[in-house]
Design goal:
By secondary structure, this protein is of the alpha/beta class. It has twelve helices and nine strands. The chain starts with a helix and ends with a helix.
């Protein structure tokens, strides 16, 4: 019956419809299957449950910045593997893999441009690059972004998304916490706004430093924001914590952040805040 099998295979090959692997997106919250194009056109927000998906720098800049206004800030050279770190893989190999995956030099990308014609420097942490972790390169990129804001006399906006400090750089990664804090102080002394937009997830040493030092603290809906994980905290204090205590909505209710803004309203809200905080410069 081999001839029959051959006929069946030929018929199957003719009638088989090729379906792209990336035609659908599965929501991580409600698990609904959504057409990828519909999901992307909805600003990477689930149309079923309104879950805000994680997005990278290029998508974020396209959503926030005025078209054709972007100037990417170059990365300053830093020592890439100061501790010669190796666990299951060499740290240098992990960097190569992350760069190949994201096409970025490291986890924080800065641009200078405009939002509704208002000049600003915008930094976006890429969670796809080693969990957005903060190391020497991220710390220096943050300082470079702040310095460009000082040069242009404009606000600095940072979109945070990180698992914390980069363990492969040890104490040097933790030293970026005071380094970035000094840069924020320089912005404050110059009267320039530092605006933080917390996105999912923002944790660890990033939360313990520049992510919580904004003049205005904004978050996207449902974002996970915290320092340590819930289980670690419960084991430390020997108490049961309320469900969802590290969500943006819980932090807003308890005064830790100023507002939770839907992604579709974020661009207009940022322009409104910058216009208000920079009114002194316009008047001068």
């Amino acid at each position: 019956m081999s001839w029959l099998r051959n006929v069946r295979n030929k018929i199957a090959s003719i009638t088989k419809k090729e379906t792209p692997d990336n035609l659908w997106h599965k929501c991580k919250k409600c698990e609904a299957m959504v057409f990828l194009k519909e999901y992307q056109e909805n600003m990477h927000i689930c149309p079923k449950c309104d879950h805000h998906g994680r997005i990278g720098p290029d998508v974020r800049f396209a959503q926030i910045m005025d078209k054709d206004s972007l100037e990417r800030l170059p990365y300053a050279a830093v020592q890439e593997d100061p501790l010669k770190f190796k666990d299951q893989k060499k740290y240098t190999d992990r960097l190569k893999d992350a760069r190949a995956k994201t096409a970025e030099q490291d986890a924080l990308i800065n641009v200078f441009g405009t939002i509704e014609s208002i000049p600003c420097v915008v930094g976006v942490q890429d969670f796809a690059f080693m969990g957005g972790s903060m190391g020497l390169a991220v710390g220096q990129a943050f300082v470079d972004g702040a310095n460009r804001a000082l040069q242009e006399q404009c606000p600095y906006i940072i979109f945070t998304a990180a698992g914390g400090a980069r363990m492969q750089e040890g104490i040097l990664s933790l030293m970026q916490m005071p380094k970035t804090t000094v840069a924020i102080s320089m912005l404050r002394e110059a009267g320039l706004p530092f605006i933080v937009v917390l996105t999912d997830p923002t944790t660890g040493g990033v939360t313990a430093s520049y992510a919580m030092l904004g003049d205005v603290q904004i978050s996207e809906p449902g974002a996970l924001i915290g320092f340590a994980g819930q289980r670690v905290i419960e084991n430390t204090i020997r108490e049961k914590l309320p469900e969802g205590f590290q969500t943006a909505e819980y932090l807003l209710e308890h005064g830790m952040i100023d507002m939770v803004v839907h992604r579709k309203e974020l661009r207009a809200q940022l322009a409104h805040i910058m216009g208000y905080l920079m009114a002194w410069k316009t008047a001068a």
